[in-house]
Write a structure and sequence with these properties.
With about 550 residues, the protein is an alpha/beta fold. Helices cover about 45% and strands about 10% of the residues. The strands form 3 sheets. It has a 6-stranded mixed sheet with strand order 1-2-13-12-10-11, with helices on both faces. It is globular and about 75 Å long. Bound molecules: 6-O-phosphono-beta-D-fructofuranose.
Length: about 550
């Protein structure tokens, strides 16, 4: 009964029989302990696992039974998840509120694939841009691309924010091992001038290239930083406007604004409105990544994405990694009332992965209305957060182990270290296993007492356990593996959005603050006392700031 493309049903999710069955089932098993589940089924640890495209998912330490899984899969089926997956891959305009196709999957489609948007195959354009990016990257990396004074480029600064920053930063950090160590890569995003000042303070403008990355080329932060970069570069290069062509390139969907800024469109790398900002790291937005790791590695990353895309598109839900992870997230979010998911990569290079996931998950699924504009009757988008292990263990794990909140965790680890040093890697992985074991099984009062703990101290040393986790294992962090991992979360987010029947691809929630800031800027900058018509708190803060900045 789709009134508009993509709206499969307008029946509130909570009113569906399968949702009610899940709610009843939750009541039955909410107190069931993982100790019991493992004791009852010695094969659980091998049975509740799935492996695909080189990623191994152990989801046995979740508070689920076979019946839970069967009901969750039924929920996915009755939510027409497969139809929605097909619609996305086909290029249907599933981003209803912006009337756009959602085709980040086309960015990693092989050269001979066909994906149609409004009757046009977009794959040739995707590869044409990738080829231009590769040519440019090779020229910068080899030193053939010279700066205005004839020096080679040694520093690359990506200027962008949100999806035009978080993906590039995360990928650069994640793949640093594969990057050209003779070059410096920095990322400027914040409107806070400190971000720009610190990024350039030790750099020579004649060796510095700016990549201005913005889908719209109108974003306040990016355009302000881009203009500051222009001034800095010109000042360091004798004010010759011709130098811009050698030190600035743009990545955008908006050729008109790029030209207005003063960047020749021959130095512009294009992408398209069917690529959402937070899904754009493998479009031209990844240009800094490609310069850092080289075109071959970049293509390997795209191949990783594509393998996970194909897995997601074609695999039965029971073995489908993103579907399983998405459903588990629904289970904790909507039935256990868990507010958050902790993502804990045991890989130092993935230190920015949780920050990247925050935009991917929360900008996508932080929605309060369904596709047909009705208020949702269940919680949507959980809060994603995390830090790499083992650092987090000495910080917030206390709360995960013994606090009063339920925090489902995703542990991510690799069998082979990129920097094998003595016993470090075995110790790292021992900690992954130990943490998930401790979270699941805990330590009873009897066990604590049996260790000779004084009675008064016993309650403090008890670990309740029954704290759920997924463990995701891969062989090694490579460009290809990173692609698989990111696509895993992208499609898990999609799965959740489909079940909640929300638009995972718009982001109206960021608009109001942007508009209000535009109104307040002149009030802060005005030489004379501006008439203020905000609420009394906002008026007061503006007045206080104006006085104290004198
Ligand atoms: O914060 C909202 C947002 O639109 C994000 O979705 C996007 O990634 C970011 O701003 C940057 O936008 P742009 O690439 O157009 O500068």
């Amino acid at each position: 009964m789709a009134a508009r493309a993509g709206v499969i049903t307008s029946r509130p999710t909570v009113k569906r029989q399968v949702w009610k069955d899940l709610a009843a089932h939750y009541k039955k098993i909410e107190d069931l302990h993982l100790r019991q589940l493992f004791a009852d089924d010695p094969t659980r640890g091998t049975r509740l696992t799935a492996e695909a495209v080189g990623l191994y998912l152990d989801y046995s330490k979740n508070r689920i039974t076979d019946e839970t899984l069967q009901l969750l899969i039924q929920l996915a089926e009755e939510s027409h998840l497969q139809d929605r997956i097909d619609a996305m891959f086909r290029g249907d305009k599933i981003n209803l509120t912006e009337k756009r196709a959602v085709l980040h999957t086309a960015l990693r489609a092989p050269r001979d694939a066909s994906v149609f948007v409004d009757g046009k195959n977009v794959v040739p354009e995707v590869h044409a841009v990738l080829d231009r990016m590769a040519d440019f990257s090779n020229r910068v990396r080899s030193g053939e691309w010279k700066g205005h004074t004839g020096k080679r480029i040694r520093n690359v600064i990506n200027v962008g924010i949100g999806g035009s920053d978080l993906g590039p930063v995360m990928a650069y950090e994640a793949l640093k091992h594969y990057s050209d160590r003779n070059m410096t890569f920095r990322f400027v995003s914040n409107i806070d001038g400190t971000d720009f000042a610190e990024a350039v303070r030790d750099l020579d403008p004649s060796e510095t290239l700016f990549i201005i990355s913005s889908k719209t080329f109108t974003t306040l932060e990016t355009m302000t930083n881009a203009h500051t970069a222009r001034e800095w570069s010109l000042a360091g290069l004798g004010g010759d406007e011709k130098s811009i062509a050698k030190h600035f390139v743009a990545v955008s969907t908006n050729a008109a604004e790029v030209t207005k800024f003063g960047i020749d469109t021959s130095n512009m790398f294009e992408f398209w409105d069917w690529v959402g900002g937070r899904y754009s790291m493998d479009s031209a937005i990844g240009l800094s990544t490609m310069v850092a790791i080289g075109p071959e590695n970049f293509r390997a990353m795209l191949h990783g994405f594509h393998q996970m895309d194909e897995h997601f598109r074609t695999t039965p839900f029971q073995q489908n990694l993103p579907v399983l992870m998405g459903l588990l997230s629904i289970w904790y979010n909507d039935f256990f009332g868990a507010q958050t998911v902790a993502v804990l990569p045991y890989e130092q290079y993935l230190k920015r992965f949780p920050a990247y996931l925050q935009q991917l998950t929360m900008e996508s699924n932080g929605k309060h209305v369904t596709l047909d504009g009705k208020t949702v009757r269940h919680d949507t988008g959980p809060i994603y957060w995390g830090e790499p292990g083992t650092n987090g263990q000495h910080s917030f794990y206390q709360l995960i182990h013994q606090g009063t909140r339920l925090i489902p965790c995703d542990f991510i680890a690799f069998s082979k270290a990129l920097n094998p040093l003595g016993r470090h890697h075995d110790m790292l992985i021992a900690n992954v296993c130990a943490q998930t074991e401790a979270l699941a099984f805990g330590k009873t009062a009897e066990q604590v007492a049996a260790e000779g703990t004084p009675k008064w101290l016993v309650p403090h040393r008890v670990f309740e356990g029954n704290r759920p986790s997924n463990t995701i294992l891969a062989e090694q962090l490579t460009p290809e593996t990173l692609g698989k991992l990111v696509a895993l979360y992208e499609h898990s987010v999609f799965t959740q959005g489909v079940i909640w029947n929300i638009d995972s691809f718009d982001q109206w929630g960021v608009e109001l603050g942007k508009v209000l800031a535009q109104r307040i800027i002149p009030e802060l900058e005005s030489k004379t006392e501006p008439p203020l018509a905000h609420d009394s708190s906002t008026n007061n803060l503006i007045t206080y700031y104006r006085k104290s900045k004198q």
